Amino acid sequence: MDAITNIFPHFYCDDNSGEINWNYLDTIPEIARLKDCPQNPKWHSEGTAYDHTRLCLENFETEVLEYEDKVKLSQDALMILRVAILLHDIGKTVTTSIGKDGNYHSYNHEIEGEKIARV
Q1: What contacts 24+ positions apart, CB below 8 Å, involve 23-32?
Q2: Which pTM value belongs to this model?
Q3: DSSP string of 29-94?
Q4: What value does the mean pLDDT of the chain take?
Q5: How many CA atoms lie within 13 A of 8 on its CB side?
Q6: Which residue(s) pair with 96 in the sheet?
Q7: 43 or 118, higher pLDDT
Q8: N or C: which end of the chain has fewer CB within 10 A?
Q9: Other C-beta atoms within 10 Å of 96: how many?
């Protein structure tokens, strides 16, 4: 995933709003594929893996702002956490299938996700 190397300067919108630059992140094929990755609604009622990832990252941003005076992390550490959240379900794009029970499963997505993130 060559784009991860260059993600840091483009992670936020250029308008100083502090908003995550989803227009840029959506150009990364591995991120865009999450939009077509269904999840088991029992565990993820928010929808696709993309919807879940966005929700996780946006909630993290809210929490960082709320607790930044209590949690003393460097900007580099915070960015590493942001990218980890962004990629935490990236392996679901290659592991999701419908099981015999009729539900979506993503067995070993964490193992496959690590491989994708390291490319």
Answers
A1: 25/86, 27/3, 28/1, 28/3, 28/4, 30/1, 30/3, 30/90, 30/93, 30/116, 31/86, 31/90
A2: 0.89
A3: HHHHGGGG----TTT-TT-SHHHHHHHHHHHHHHHHHHHTTTS---HHHHHHHHHHHHHTTTTHHH
A4: 90
A5: 8
A6: none
A7: 43
A8: C
A9: 20
Taking residues 91-104, report their average pLDDT. 96
67: left (phi over 0), alpha (psi -120 to 50) or beta: alpha
Between 75 and 57, the more confident residue is 57
Percent of the chain with pLDDT over 90: 63
- Give the chain's radius of gyration (CA, Å): 15
pLDDT at 7: 80
DSSP string of 13-33, one letter each residue? -TTSS--B-HHHHTTSHHHHG
- Dihedral sign of CA atoms 112, 78, 86, 116 in order: negative
- pLDDT at 33 (0 to 100): 96
DSSP 8-state assignment for residue 6? T
